[in-house]
Amino acid sequence: MPAETTTSKQLPHQAPFYARSRFLLIALALGLVYSYGWRVTEIDLRELIRDFHLVKPLVTALAHPDLITANTESATAEASFLLGPSALPPKPIQPPKTSRPTLRLSRQGGKIGDTLTAEGFNLKPDSQGKLVWVNSIGQEFPLAAIATDGKGRFYREIRVPDLARGKEQRVKAVLTWETGGWRISHTLKLAADKMIETIFLALMATSLAIPVAVPLSFLGARNLMSPHPLGMAVYYAVRTLFNVLRSIEPLILAILFAVWVGIGPFAGVLALGLHSVAALGKLYSEQIESIDPGPVEAVTATGATRLQMILYAVVPQVAPQFLAFTFYRWDINVRMSTIIGFVGGGGIGFLLQQWINLLQYNQAGTALLIITLVVITLDTISAKVRQKVI
What we know:
Layout: H1 21-40, H2 46-50, H3 52-62, E1 68-83, E2 102-105, E3 109-110, E4 115-121, E5 128-134, E6 140-147, E7 154-159, E8 168-184, H4 186-219, H5 222-225, H6 229-247, H7 250-261, H8 265-289, H9 293-301, H10 306-340, H11 348-357, H12 361-389
Parallel strand pairs: 1-3
Antiparallel strand pairs: 1-8, 2-4, 4-7, 5-6, 5-8
Helix pairs in contact: 3-12, 4-8, 4-10, 4-12, 6-8, 7-8, 8-10, 9-10, 10-11, 10-12, 11-12
């Protein structure tokens, strides 16, 4: 009997994945996409180094927030100025006959761009302060720094600013000096107050969104609506509504509601609430679509109505996830509310925008620090809640 012989079939040689034509084509396509994207977005890494000196003072100021300040006292002296089309001739400044702090101007009126002299008398000796222009609607614009001599006098040339509005104007000299001791700064108190407003703004927006998002989420779940053609029509209508509302940024909604109901936190509540309806509705409906169908079939087999099936087979499965998503959305709304404040949505964002526009970066740093601490705290609380309920 001849010996059995076995032949082994050799597997065809396969090239490594990086040498295959398909991989090379994909890599080439990705290279072209990112090359075009690099050119379209005008990325130039050299500018990060070349122009760093421009942003360094800003970063330095933001890194030194205005948290505590020395106890101070201040003294103020004011002088009136009439804004008109023609400039009045300058007059020599005469010292006052009283010992009260006094500010006098070489011109009592004029137009934008005119130069004049401001001279202070009987102020606190050897002190520093600033000159401020106040227009007819109370807006203040810094003009120059001042310093008094040993007799409490100062002399400074100023110019009527471009932002002067109305007829009746004022020039104000403000001197400030330390009296010893430290206290919480006014900036920190103001930022903390607005941060509390921001937290409750986000809370109210989330709370108002829940009663709308929950019923809509059941209508937007395919597994609950698919058995009937009418149900599928409702499903697509609700999902389209979610997509439309989610595609509109809360910033745009805040502008809309600020025009509708006025600037303030109510506009922010409406903007975040409407956007939260779409965001929570989508999350809730997707969670409903991923439930275990076993309990649904068991409850349906007992002859339960559709409402009973949802209450006893669906809700118990999704309630913990709904709660977790709600806390997560509140956390998101707190962060988003700081942005919609830039367009009049209230909260700390409105205050932050003012400080940035006025180049008060130390005050802006205070707001950013508080926002960061609150977001970290809420994220920690939200994570613990989600961990316990899921």
